[in-house]
Write a structure and sequence with these properties.
- The chain is α+β, with helices and mostly antiparallel strands and about 425 residues long.
- The protein folds into 3 domains: about 80 residues, Beta Barrel (OB fold (Dihydrolipoamide Acetyltransferase, E2P)); about 90 residues, no CATH class; about 200 residues, Chloramphenicol acetyltransferase-like domain (Chloramphenicol Acetyltransferase), CATH 3.30.559.
- It is about 25% helix and about 25% strand.
- It has 11 helices and 19 strands.
- The strands form 5 sheets. Strands 9, 12, 15, 16, 17, 18 and 19 form a 7-stranded mixed β-sheet that branches. The chain has a 4-stranded antiparallel β-sheet with strand order 1-8-6-3, with no helix packed on it. A 4-stranded antiparallel β-sheet has the order 5-4-2-7, with no helix packed on it.
- Helix 9 crosses helix 11.
- The relative contact order is 0.11.
């Protein structure tokens, strides 16, 4: 009988691989068209892989924990010619073997898995000359400052980095012994030997995705500005609201209205042009196991606070379960991160590489504020908000005016 491959599909934009979580069928099982046969984890969500036709599962070529690239053969189904004709499925060409997934994911080769922690600058400095540890030759500063040689990596080192899935950011703790502080291949290999055997764990797809995003974000000049917000109006409004919107939703809605008035604050710089967003689509940072997911709500300025409650609750729940609908993935112009839920009063959140603005919300505190009316300090409920932004696009004054409008809406929640 003809054989039909089960292929790893393209599960989203820019997704090149997925990790096998569970096989939902076994060899010998009978399946129907569009039946979910694998549960896989991408860097964005947990998703299902389905069959292209019905038939009998002949074999599975992947197992739990393996990282499988898009297009790889995950198994084979034996199907009738009638079923193949009905479904339009592609037949496995004669002589084709199931693609064997890489034994380790990009960025998680054996050496990378065994030790993902680099020695500190202090440990390098404290190594004694007689200990056999790699020492600086003295031809450059221990931590090179403004020297081109310190940033040069030879093709041989880059080839090893690609082989092991190591990035330049991972080399920050190595002090080079070459001219001008350059990292030599011996420095690199000594470093790998040094961290070999350290306690470690394999970075999950989510963790690798967060790491990649933050590295790309840091290529831009990111600045932060903050101010306090009086929270009593929001707390009272929420208490009297029949649907009790989440505190974070107040900030999402207020930011949407403020950005609708000043969309350039969430613009993008491309070459010599600054692009202005066409729609106010805002993300919400949701903490999940080993990372953060950011579901994106569309056209937030076009709906009232009351109208957004159900959608907000739905996307947050989906994000926590890591089963986010594709319509809520990506494409945001800014994000709201309520780090106050963890008791933090101040932080400097980092925007996604595809965004130039993120608003962080701190924990509510009672603080003494001087009252001219009663001529004494009175307790006031406040939260610190922090906006981190691409300084190429906007300046502190622009962000200051944006946050003034944001504060106005938050302190008059009936406008939301």
């Amino acid at each position: 009988m003809p054989q039909v491959p089960i292929l790893m599909p393209q599960l989203g934009e820019s997704i090149a691989e997925a990790t096998i979580m569970h096989a939902l069928v076994q060899p010998g099982d009978t399946v129907v068209a569009d039946q979910e046969v694998f549960e896989v984890e991408t860097n964005k969500a947990v998703m299902g892989v389905t069959t292209s036709c019905g038939g009998k599962v002949l074999s599975l070529s992947v197992s739990e924990g393996e990282v499988v690239p898009v297009g790889a053969i995950m198994g084979i189904i034996e199907a009738t010619e009638e079923e193949i004709e009905r479904s339009g499925a592609s037949i496995l060409e004669e002589g084709t073997q199931p693609a064997t997934p890489a034994e380790t994911a990009p960025g998680s080769s054996p050496a990378a898995q065994d030790g993902a922690h680099f020695r500190t600058v202090g440990e390098y400095r404290e190594a004694s000359p007689g200990s056999g540890e790699k020492q600086s030759s003295g031809r450059g500063l221990p931590v090179p400052i403004g020297m081109r040689g310190a940033h040069f990596l030879s093709p041989r080192i880059r080839a090893r980095m690609d082989e092991l899935g190591i990035t330049e950011a991972d080399l920050a703790y190595i002090i080079g012994s070459g001219p001008g502080g350059r990292i030599t291949i011996d420095d690199f290999e000594d470093f790998l030997n040094y961290v070999d055997g350290w306690p470690s764990r394999k970075a999950s797809p989510m963790r690798r995705s967060v790491a990649s995003s933050m590295q790309r974000t840091w290529r831009r000049p990111i600045a932060s500005a903050g101010r306090p917000i009086y929270m009593a109006p929001i707390i009272l409004h929420r208490k009297n609201h029949p649907r009790r919107p989440g505190i974070t939703l107040y900030f999402v809605r207020a930011l949407a209205l403020a950005l609708a008035e000043s969309p350039e604050c969430a613009g993008y710089m491309v070459g010599g042009r600054i692009l202005t967003p066409r729609r106010i689509d805002l993300g919400v940072a949701v903490q999940v196991a080993d990372g953060v997911m950011v579901p994106v709500m569309r056209g937030v300025n076009e709906s009232t606070l009351d109208e957004l409650v159900d959608e907000f609750n739905k996307v947050v729940q989906q994000a926590r379960e890591r089963r986010l609908d594709p319509g809520y993935q990506g494409g945001g112009i800014a994000t709201v991160s309520n780090f106050g839920g963890f008791g933090l009063t101040h932080a400097t959140p980092m925007p996604l590489p595809s965004e130039s603005l993120i608003l962080g919300v701190g924990a509510v505190q009672k603080v003494p504020v001087w009252s001219e009316e009663v001529q004494c300090f009175i307790p006031v409920e406040q939260a610190q908000i922090v906006a981190s932004f691409d300084h190429r696009v906007v300046d502190g004054g622009d962000i200051g005016r944006l946050m003034q409008r944001l504060a106005h809406y938050l302190e008059h929640p009936e406008l939301l």
